[in-house]
Amino acid sequence: MLNKSITMLALSAAITSFSAPAFSADLVLYDALDFSGKVAKAFEAKTGLKVDVVEPGSTGEVLGKIAAEGDNPQFDIVWLDGSAVMERMAADHILQPVPADLIDKAAFTDFGKSLIPTSHAFLPTGASTTAIEVNTKKVADDKTPKSWADLKNFAGEVAAKDPNLSGPAYQWLAGFFQTNGLDTGKDLLAKVLTNKSQSGLSSGGKVNAAVLTGKASVGINQDSAIFSKIASGEPVKAVYPSEGSIALPQGLGISAKTQHMDAARKFIDFVTSAEGQAAMQDGKDTDFYFMPLIVGVKGKPGRPADIAFIKLDDKVASSHEAEWKQWYKDHFVP
What we know:
Layout: H1 2-19, E1 27-31, H2 36-47, E2 51-54, H3 59-69, E3 77-81, H4 83-91, E4 95-96, H5 100-105, H6 110-114, E5 123-128, E6 130-135, E7 158-160, H7 167-180, H8 182-192, H9 196-199, H10 204-213, E8 218-222, H11 223-231, E9 236-239, E10 245-246, E11 248-255, H12 261-271, H13 274-280, E12 309-310, H14 314-319, H15 321-332
Parallel strand pairs: 1-2, 1-3, 7-8, 10-12
Antiparallel strand pairs: 3-11, 4-11, 5-11, 6-8, 6-9
Helix pairs in contact: 2-13, 7-8
């Protein structure tokens, strides 16, 4: 009888933990950004609130975890690179609009204001873009590509990320189709990404490694990943393609089913403050090299701010997300 009671209690506890939020913290954050842990610790020290930082891995893995949770989401806020994926989650009612007063309160630069979605699906906390990463020891100055079209000269030697795993890579792919046209873009990629062992990489770190080890001469990579390597003295440079650079916002979104809205509001307030922005730059990995969107905040040394950005058509990109990711997987992923 005692064993049966213990078993029933254990089963009851398991059911309860599955059907209710599994965390006892004041706020549960899902993310795929290098600086989130630093920001959470600084926020905890400032407010006394407890944040559970859950990092399943890449953006694709975070999105997969959210999808698997279905109608029982376990997160309060999510922080990812990419406006298209955030707009899609808002359209699917996974996210709720960020309150207008929080957006209005933040001291956004003009560029920052331009990245605020009309839907308020997310709050932009910083930005980057995708550039051409060039190994300066393998590629002479007069051979350096200046456009996406020039990458045809490096067919088989181009490293790239799989958009199914990388948020920045999907933002780039959708932007690539926007600036080149869908059919022309697909045709160009078919001529450039001819080596599947290098075109289906899972992260910017692996693109960096491929370019630095010589497995690839050039890479299609998030510019902040390139600047992190430049800062450490590696022989690479970032080239912004002549076709234009699609803006890649870091998006902070709020779960449609959060029960911790007050804590979420406080976290957003902190992230957009000078103190929160400082925590976002307190490191040397890729995401610490973002372009700030808050007035008075400067990027890390070496982070350019004079890029001519193109804004992604998020409605088109989010509506074709599954289709274009599958197309890329079918053609360029081993």
